[in-house]
Structures are given as C-alpha cells and as structure tokens.
C-alpha cells in the first residue's frame, strides 16, 4: 500500500500529468476561475502539487527513525522495545515503515491532519498502526472534556473495522498528528484554508447496477434485495450523491444487446452524470470477458471506477484489470457450464415425457399441483380472440387497441398491449401446440 494508493492516484510515480478530466475529481481550492469544483484528490493529479507532496513525503519517510529511553546519564538508543519494530520495520502487516510514514506525511500535507488507528492487545501493548483517511475523521470533546474521534466508514479501506457507518474511537486508540491550524487539535487543510474564497466540495455521484438472469421467484427476490441494498447504501454516505439504480430484470449477462439499463448506465457515465459505479459481482456486471474488459476500460478513460463488491475489485486499481480478466473468465465459463447442464436436464425430462415450460406470464395456461399444464378458461378466450381477429385481417396494433378498450390486461398485468406482445402470442409454439415437436427437434437434430 503506497501513498498513491491511499490517495487514489494510479500510474507511474515519476510521470504525473496535469489532468482535470472526470467529474469524480475537482481542483484543489474549491472552485477555480474556470468554474471547476475542486478537492484534495484532483490536487494530486497536477504536476506541481504531486511533485511537492512526493518530495516532502519521501524525504520525511527516508529519515532514520530511532527509539530512545531516558537513563541516569541522559538518553540511550534501544532496539528491544516493542515500539522499535513497529516504527522502524513494520507498523502493520500491509505496510513498511517507509510507506507508513510517507502516507501519513502525504495526509498531513494535503488534508492538514494525519491519523492512525492504534491496535492493542489485552494488556494494552501496541500491536500495529493503521492509517485512517483524514477526510472521514471527526474530532470532538465529551461532556467531561475528554477527546474522542468518530470515523465515518463506508468502504473497506481499514480491515480492523467490522461495522459500517460512524465508528467511535477513544483518544488512546488514535495517533493524531495535526498540521498548521487555529487550535492544538485540528490542522487546517489547504482546501479548508481557502474556504473563505468560496470553495465548494462536490459530492461523488454514485450509481449501482443490478441484474438477475431469470424471472424465477427466488431470483426476483434477489433482484429486489440488490436494489434496496444499494439504494440505502449510497444514500447513507454523506460524501455521495445518489445517481440512481440501473437494473435489468430477467436478462442474460452473456450479451449487452438486450440489457437496456446497462446500456443506459454506460451512456450516462460517458455523459458525465456518474462518477462511481457499484455492482454486486463481476457476474452481475457481465458474463462475457470481452464485454467486461471493454466497458471497464471505457469507464477508466473517464476516471470512473467500477467497484465489484463480492470480489472487492476496483476497476481503476493497478491490479484491477488482471483480476477482472480472471474473474470474468470464470463467470463466462460458469455461465456456459450452467447453460449446458440446464439443456441436458431439459433433454432428460423430455425423454421421460415431462414438459419443461415456464408458466409465469404465460397467458392461457397455469400448472396444477403435479406441475402439469392446465388451461385457464378465461385466458384461453383471450388467446382465441387474438387469433380470430388476426385471421380476419386485423393488424397487431388494432388487436392491441381492442383489448385495451375492453380493459383486458396482459400476462404481466399491464393495461397496455404493445404490438410486440400480440406478436409473441401469435408466434408462441406453446400456444399453437407445437412445443413438443419444436423443442425435441432443437435437441435431437
């Protein structure tokens, strides 16, 4: 974990570029004369700021660090104290001492404060130190005058926090290094220091994508749970602006051709309406490796990350594309294997004389307790009417308008009859009665 990773900056450390593209980023001191809203992240996208922070952070991180204790004749350097290993070698299992100090110095320069969580054992001995993002931290005093900290956690940047939301931390649980400020507790960031000039920090516009591949009751429940979860998750984050839920119901992820909301999501991202995309997993985003890589690359060019929650992958991460390629390939193979298993299962049932038909939204039929198709008399009359009017020369539009005029609902319980809906009934093998012949032909020929 490096300074660039903590601050969300990718690419070669020695080749920063002046870049203001993408609505996820805005410039350093609020709104500039060009009208760009700014924040700390965009500052690190400019050559001057990046170079200054890098030089200072690396200079401080490269200084020698020692642990001393007081003795009768002054002070002496020690190497056997537990803190020596933490500060000199490894503050936590994920960071070296250099990276840890570089990170805190970068936070101090950009945000005006540096924080680290102190992890202790049951005896109070310090075991590790983990950096905390300064823009998520609040400092205050309780009624007894004791300092306390509140960390607003809405992502997985710290493995020590189990809960999301506002996490309470005691004063002894936080290493706080304040920069220049107006009191002894809080440093002032360059952004805050310039707030008097009217700086406005923009929220991140976040959207979620959800998908289920069938209209089975179990999958529809999963679909509703995804929509509800991500709506709540985005709206609860004070740093995010809810940009909407894009959801495709009963749609395969193998291709994007029929995924209306997925295509709309990509269009809105390209139009600058979305800064960040969340989805449940790689398989929900797409079950086609080529599609997954193509679309995440398109969004990456616009500085729009896609976060895959299950796999904990961010598409703009330096290792993100490699992991995406692996996981997307697995999802594609899983889809192919599942498809083959389903086809074999249907073929075996046909060999036994068992019919496999989804009766949901299937006008004219339902299934009895033995899962056999039975005719619904009322709906059968509607089917007969559609065929009769078509044979008499009525167009699809005329048939649909006639059904609407009589208050007849579609199989999906909707009042509007589109020509496509009427056409599907006229071309449905199951309604005509040729389902056995047609499917058996498809399987064995």
The rough form would be described as elongated
Please indicate the percent range of residues in DSSP E strands (runs of 2 or more): 15-25%
The biggest sheet amounts to: 5 strands, mixed
Q: Low-confidence spans: pLDDT under 50, at least 5 residues?
A: 1-37, 192-200, 434-445
Quote the distance from N terminus to C terminus. Answer: 57 Å
Task: Indicate the mean pLDDT.
Answer: 76
Helix content: 25-40%
Number of domains: 3
Number of helices: 16
Structural class: alpha+beta
CA radius of gyration: 30 Å
Widest sheet: strand order?
A: 10-9-11-12-13
Count the E strands. 15
Please describe the structure with a list of short key phrases separated by commas or semicolons.
445 residues, Hect, E3 ligase catalytic domain fold, 3 domains, three-stranded antiparallel beta sheet, 15 strands
Task: Describe the protein in words.
- It is a single chain.
- The chain has 445 residues and is α+β, with helices and mostly antiparallel strands.
- It has three domains: 3-189, no CATH class; 204-334, Rossmann fold, CATH 3.40.50; 355-444, Hect, E3 ligase catalytic domain fold.
- It is built from 16 helices and 15 strands.
- The chain has a five-stranded mixed β-sheet with strand order 10-9-11-12-13, sandwiched between helices. Strands 4-3-8 form a three-stranded antiparallel β-sheet. It has a three-stranded antiparallel β-sheet with strand order 5-6-7, with no helix packed on it.
- Strand 3 (113-120) and strand 4 form a beta hairpin.
- Helix 3 packs across helix 5 (97-111), helix 10 runs antiparallel to helix 11 and helix 13 (396-405) packs across helix 14 (419-427).
- The longest helix is centred in the last third of the chain and has 32 residues, at 320-351.
